[in-house]
Design brief:
This is Lysine ketoglutarate reductase trans-splicing related 1. The protein is α/β, with parallel strands linked by helices. The protein is built from 12 helices and 9 strands. Helix content is about 40%, strand content about 10%.
Length: about 425
């Protein structure tokens, strides 16, 4: 139903048109001047009455609408000022709030229950860590994890531990236990934790995110020196090289090169799967392994969206990380040699030497024959299955998205030609 003022506005042009175009029918004779004067007088009076009606109707209709709006019966139309204040790119759900009160991001900083005065706030801001170490850990690797955490805390990192065995209390004996974030969920992988607890808006204050496994030795690794090389080389996604004499090595690209600061490329000039100067794709170049990746803030904003919510082993993800390298993966992805680690390759989830919380917990959350070699085999089988699923999802997504252009496919076509 139209409101009173809208009816008025639409009716006025009709009246004007009528009086402007009014003509007597042919053959109709005007009455005597005396009667003619009376007729015109009547028309003028009618016009004045109509005009007064329209003006008054518009005024009272507006007052009527305002009264209904106050009663909550109708919605008022925003005025010109409201239209001028339309908000662009507002966070979903915050539309009802004034702009100055909206807190778009968060962090992992623990807050005091008291002594939070101005001086304490200034000191805390000055000492606020700018980087994050997140690890999935089990109590059986307590000594190894302790060495890692101590080194990172001394380098002003925030540390977040994901406890997949549920034994959070078992870490209380360590001096730093109350200064790190503990998250517990039985028999979950670090990618499961990362997808749920490392959203880019939560860790927006941290420049680099180290998402590491627990079975790493860091005797030859310094976090600060590592990051200085990463910044100098412009690496958005990286990892420390692996000591080949002590590590379980799965991919030759990750092997430590003595005397080298860092490398981006691996060479294999004989046999199948050759890697040479013309190689433009993983695993020859633009690639890191998943056991100790390091992400810049910008790259993590992309990687978090790449992690699938239900594919918790994340196999196959490494091949696509280069799309999140904020540019050319051949330049922005690399392996740091001068700060290297040892990868022990210990079986954890589902393994006979792993970190199951207890026989009681395992019977509820792990395969029926866990712990045992067969359970570890099932974990690996699930990893392979998830890799196939992820690969299919990627291909389907690339095919269906008509607006997406694969930069590396174009690069490959140019190289081939």
């Amino acid at each position: 139903m139209k409101s009173f003022d809208s009816v008025t506005v639409s009716f006025l042009p009709l009246c004007l048109t009528f009086f402007t175009n009014f003509r007597l029918p042919e053959g109709l004779v005007l009455p005597e001047p005396k009667n003619r004067l009376f007729l015109w007088s009547a028309l003028i009076v009618i016009s004045l009455i109509s005009g007064a009606y329209f003006v008054g109707n518009a005024f009272f209709a507006n007052e009527y609408k305002q009264r209904l709006a106050r009663w909550g019966l109708i919605h008022t139309i925003p005025d010109s000022k409201s239209n001028a204040c339309k908000r662009q790119c507002w966070p979903l759900g915050s539309e009802a709030l004034p702009e100055g009160i909206i807190a778009r991001t968060s962090n992992l900083e623990m807050r005091p229950l008291w002594d939070s005065g101005k001086d304490h706030v200034c000191v805390r801001i000055l000492k606020r860590p700018l980087n994050l170490l997140a690890m999935a850990v089990g109590l059986k690797q307590k000594e190894i994890v302790n060495n890692i955490v101590e080194k990172f805390l001394s380098s002003d990192f925030v540390v977040m531990l994901f406890h997949y065995d549920g034994f959070v209390d078992g870490w209380k004996s360590l001096a730093w236990s109350n200064n790190v974030i503990h998250v517990s969920a039985i028999n979950q992988t670090k990618w499961w934790f990362a997808k749920r607890f490392l959203h880019p808006d939560i860790i927006a204050e941290y420049n680099y995110i180290f998402l590491w496994d627990e079975d790493l030795l860091v005797d030859n690794f310094d976090p600060k020196r590592y990051l200085s090389i990463v910044k100098e080389e412009g690496l958005e996604i990286s990892q420390p090289a692996l000591d080949p004499t002590k590590s379980e090595v799965h991919h030759p690209l990750t092997v430590h090169k003595a005397g080298s600061k860092m490398h981006r490329r691996y060479y294999k000039l004989k046999g199948s799967g050759r890697c040479d100067d013309s190689s433009i794709a993983p695993p020859c170049i633009g690639w890191v392994e998943m056991m100790a990746p390091v992400f810049s803030k910008k790259s993590w904003q992309c990687v978090w969206h790449l992690i699938q919510n239900d594919l918790i082993h994340a196999w196959g993800l490494d091949r696509q990380l280069g799309y999140c390298a904020q540019g050319d993966r051949m330049k922005n992805v690399g392996v740091v040699d001068s700060e290297y680690i040892v990868h022990l390759g210990l079986p954890t989830l589902g393994g006979p030497n792993g970190n199951e919380a207890s026989d009681f917990i395992s019977t509820r959350t792990a395969p029926s024959d866990s712990p045992g070699g067969n359970a570890r085999g099932r974990v690996r089988m699930q990893s392979y299955i998830e890799m196939q699923v992820f690969g299919k999802r990627w291909r389907d997504a690339a095919k269906k998205d008509k607006c997406w252009i694969d930069p590396y496919q174009q690069q490959a076509n140019l190289t081939n030609h």
